[in-house]
Amino acid sequence: MGYKETVEDMLAEIDRTLAHIDTGCLERAMRDLGDADRIFIAGAGRSGLVMRSFAIRLMHMGKQVFVVGENVTPGIGEGDLLVIGSGSGRTDSLVAFAQKAKSVGSRLLLFTISPESPIGKLADLVVLISAPSHKVLVEMDHSTSMQPKGSLFEQSLFLVLDYLVIELMKRANLRSEDLFSRHANLE
Q1: Is 13 a domain residue?
Q2: 53: domain CATH number?
Q3: Residue 11: partners with Cβ closer than 8 Å, 6 or more residues away
Q4: What is the count of structural domains for the chain?
Q5: 103 three-class SS
């Protein structure tokens, strides 16, 4: 199998995964993101990198956003929103973040493969991304992936988060040029 065939198969996997997303959940996620005064972003490993890219886009939109674990991140509090991206929903550090956020009255939004996970049970809203993973067995019509480990989840998460950014931009009447004014200039 060559490049073209492999990429076509990868895109077909992504397409099938994204077709299973509950758009009602995405609408509620947009509302939560739009209403939040302060947004805290967390994830681990490759999912954490995807979540960091989401934090950058939210900052470009003018949102007050923080990445959990950075030295300049303040404490989370009542009324804040913690957004976690975790395929398994059971990474120890992320479970601890979720527990702390809920204990101080923050809302919790989770993007995951596993809604019944420890973080899923704490979340106010779960967006299910039904991507097969070695960490989580998911009942669906495409129970395997040709891609390594959690790649399909991470790719799908990236696209779902970019979709949310695009929709939030439309609702706020923001253009790409508006976001560029907040782009890093110490590069």
Answers
A1: no
A2: 3.40.50.10490
A3: none
A4: 1
A5: helix
Cα 178 versus chain centre, distance: 23
Question: What's the token pair of residue 94?
Answer: 């992320």
Q: Is residue 184 domain-resident?
A: no
What was the pLDDT predicted at 137?
Answer: 55
Reduced to 3 states (helix: H, G, I; strand: E, B; else coil), residue 109 is strand
pTM value is 0.93
The pLDDT tens digits for 101-128 are 999 999 999 999 999 999 999 999 999 9
Helices (H), 45-117: 45-60, 92-103
Contacts for 88 with CB less than 8 Å, ≥ 6 apart: 112, 113, 114, 117, 133, 135, 136
Which of 154, 167, 177, 187 is flagged as catalytic? 154
Is 181 contained in some domain?
no
R_g of the chain, CA atoms, integer Å: 17
CA 81 vs. chain centroid, Å, equals 13
In a domain, 2, yes or no: no
Specify the pairing of strand 38-43 against strand 81-85.
Answer: parallel
Known catalytic membership, residue 154: yes
Q: Which two tokens stand for residue 93?
A: 């550090």
Domain containing 168 equals 23-176
